[in-house]
Amino acid sequence: MNSIPHGDVAVEPRVIDFDDNRLLPELFGEHDKNLVRIETQLGISLINRGNQIAMTGPKDAVELAEAGLKRLYSRLKGGERIEDADVDAALRMAGQPTDLFGQQEPVIRTRRRQIGPRTPTQAEYIDAIYGHDLVFGLGPAGTGKTYLAVCMAVSMYLSGQVERIILSRPAVEAGERLGFLPGDMKEKVDPYLRPIYDALYDTLPADQVSRKLENGDIEVAPLAFMRGRTLKNAFVLLDEAQNTTAMQMKMFLTRLGENSRMVVTGDLSQIDLPPGQISGLAEAVQTLSDVKGISMICFSAADVVRHPLVARIVQAYDARDAVKAGGTKR
Questions:
Q1: pLDDT band at 187 (very low <50, low <70, confident <90, very high)
Q2: Which of 265, 241, 147 is nearest to 201 (CA)?
Q3: Partner of 241 for a Cys bridge, out of 235, 257, 281, 311, CB 3.0 to 4.6 A?
Q4: Rounded CA gap, 198 and 176, in Å?
């Protein structure tokens, strides 16, 4: 969330006019909850009068509110809906220059919805995936690393840029030895891949997801199944990569074939490998940080787009780790 900006308090309220009254009930929210949310975050006063909003408060905060409201109104005009998280996202993005990523912010188009960035780092991440063959998305849970990568995979598949989608995770909890689990192979690995399925169903109708999984256009498989393959004309995602070994990571990265895009996501603070085992993701970040054609995007607690409490939880753990490392003192 934005911190409350400081600046001169405007003597006269700033007024915004909206030209479509039909959109205003959703813009304002039930019982004006969206306006109240903006007031609380920015420390300003918002009063709606017909098709206008009058804003009073510190100049910088009023400017952020105006930009945020215009972003939300633009979403509504484009046929999208507004949730609480969208209000927070509009305020986060409001202070960014419009030409930061070219003519406009990058967006992801899928069958079910159009997805835009909710933080500046998410915008950088989407832009990096558009422009690089290999992207690492690093950072805490709740920052959209996996979700946005799956959405990008679906978008590039639908537009014909790739012919198939390959989505993978290491099944560390079962030690990649899945034979002792009940059921067929799909039933064995599904619990580890559920977050990926959730993102797929959010971007494609359920019947299309099932059909494309059956015909192989979309493949969801544990990392062990990637060995010995060359992945051509595909969008390839490795999620939870902090739980790969150094050997597994090298194996996976060298699967990249012609006309393919690869994204590797992970949180280096959540490594579940046995003690003493080096994370393949940590080694890859150190080894490949200066390699041309590779982009590494680092998310932080400021990019958490789940419940606001999640960001505070991440910050608390980061502070504890810093104390343990001797970096700060309480």
A1: low
A2: 147
A3: 281
A4: 22
Q: CA 26 to CA 166: how far, in whole Å?
A: 38
The full length of the chain comes to 330
pTM for the model stands at 0.76
Alpha-carbon distance of 106 to 130, in angstroms, equals 9
Q: Got the DSSP string for 183-244?
A: S-HHHHHHHHHHHHHHHHHHHS-HHHHHHHHHHTSEEEEEGGGGTT--B-SEEEEE-SGGGS
CB within 8 Å of 215: residues ≥ 6 apart: none
CA 168 – CA 153 distance, rounded (Å): 13
Nearest-angstrom CA–CA distance, 70 and 16: 9
Residues forming a β-bridge with 222 = 169
Q: CA-to-CA distance for 254 and 226, rounded, in angstroms?
A: 10
Q: What is the pLDDT at residue 104?
A: 56
| Contact between residue 145 and residue 299 where contact means Cβ atoms under 8 Å apart | yes
**What pLDDT digit, counting tens, does each position of 10-22 carry?**
557 889 999 988 9
Closest alpha carbon to 245 in 217, 229, 223, 212: 223
Q: Which of 251, 234, 247, 94 is nearest to 165 (CA)?
A: 234
